[in-house]
Amino acid sequence: MKTNQINEQKVSSDKRTCKADKTTFLPKRSISRKETAELTKQEEFVRKHRRHHHEIASWRTILFVLFLALWEISADLKWIDSFFFSSPGRVVKCFVEQMKSNSMLAHIGVTLFETLFSFLLVICASLLVATLLWYSPKLSEILEPYLVVLNSLPKSALAPLFIVWLGTGTRTIIVAGMSVAVFGSVISFYTGFRQVDTEKITLIYTLGGSRRDAFSKVVLPGSVPILLSTAKVNIGLALVGVIIGEFLAARRGLGYLIIYGSQVFQLDMVITSIIVLCIIALVFYKSIQVIEHQIRIRFKM
Amino acid sequence: MQNILELKNIGYSYHSLHGETRALQNISFGVREGEFIAIVGPSGCGKSTLLSIIAGLLSPEEGTIAVNNPDGSLHYPKIGYMLQRDHLFEWRTVYRNVTLGLELNHAMTKEHLDTVERLLTDYGLDKFRDKRPSELSGGMKQRAALIRTLALEPQLLLLDEPFSALDYQTRLFVSADICRLIRAAGKTMIIITHDLSEAISLADRIIVLSGRPAVVKNEVAVKLTLADNSPLAARNAPEFQQYFNMLWEDLTHENEPNQ
Description:
The complex is a heterodimer. Chain A folds into two domains: 2-76; 87-298, MetI-like fold (Orthogonal Bundle). Helix content of chain A is 86%, strand content 0%. Chain A is built from 13 helices and no strands. In chain A, helix 5 (103-135) runs antiparallel to helix 6 (137-152). Chain B is of the alpha/beta class. Chain B has a domain at 89-154. Helices cover 34% and strands 26% of the residues of chain B. In chain B, a hairpin with a 5-residue loop joins strand 4 (62-68) and strand 5. The longest helix of chain B is centred in the last third of the chain and has 17 residues, at 168-184. The termini of chain B are far apart. The interface between A and B is medium-sized, with 20 and 20 residues.
């Protein structure tokens, strides 16, 4: 964005010099030489910037391709046992087979749905709780130790309980997904609310506003960046929770596929599912990044 | 001229488990309509506490603050408060920032909005109404903050070191500019400052507070012979140095017992 601005400024100043050129009949050569000198400096900067990005992108690709090649070659040359470690070729084959039988898409769909649903529930629930905590400092003081303990508790320990309480099924898995993210996100939201400049809140009071106005006009809009960064972490955590849930209590989903694959010693299936999970995590992260970017543009933050 | 506010024997303490800190003691003074009062004092003496009490953000532990009407009822002026920084919200346009007070008071009436329009035009902010605060200069931001305050039509304006976030040069111009606008609007003003030159150049009367617990140490009526209307005119007035020395004496003698 910075470079764009610089470019625009450059363009407009160039236009201005051109106009001046026409009206004042200044010697053209000296100006054009100066311009080219300036332009090349600017161009140089842009080029350097682009080159840097190309370099990073190419190294990333090279690393990826090298890894795949090394994996494939070591499997082909029997350096590693492809029964245990699979290989890119076997992964692709497995993926295609699973797609043909239509089961892969269904598994992906189930995991996606469960993750998104528990993510949305986490965001709504933690916004609600954090708001209550902000409204009542006494309540937040009372609940603080409980939140800290629940947040540091390994949530996978709760999963067996959920199964007993809620049975095996989507409900359990969504709850498991929520349990991983919800306490941490309550704490981050509440911390974000608290970090809003107290003078801005005083301003609301001096203008005759209430505590509710302070929340809706200052605290909430002022915490949007923190809400977004917490959301970015939470979507990953929800995925973790959902997979834990599927390990224990599912007949569908990628987590189930991983456990099933390992039990019947079809490690191709396990590794394929893990790679699909990698891609899902990446897509989630990127989508929230895009949303974040859109919001930042909209509100010029 | 009539007093629009009277402070009588105001006292206030801060409490903590380690004990009580007396901040204000026996503070009494009146504020006449249209008057500009500057409050100066050593840092941490309780100036801001006093302003918060006048603004109604804190209630005094002792004393009264109001004006007795002839019929015996208490009268309290409508107050506008300007904080140390402009605190314009970046997620709102300039226009939505200046109408924030009206929005909070559910007072978006045509009459009030007309006042805002007039102020926007008068203060040269009309063409910036749809911009974000970050696109305004420091002086423009202060003007926008002033419109936000004036939109609610307060009688008394309280300014808590309002220009301290600005660099020195901008501050000279902006403080003179804002005070000129407030005078033109016919408002009464109480300004807190630690800058003696600013106090002398802006105020009709200066109230000097002592160190903790703050009592009114001196009241100085300021009369300057002004050559012109520039921000520096007051500072070039022949009496300026005298006032400065007098206030300086007041404040430095204050520190002596501690040294």
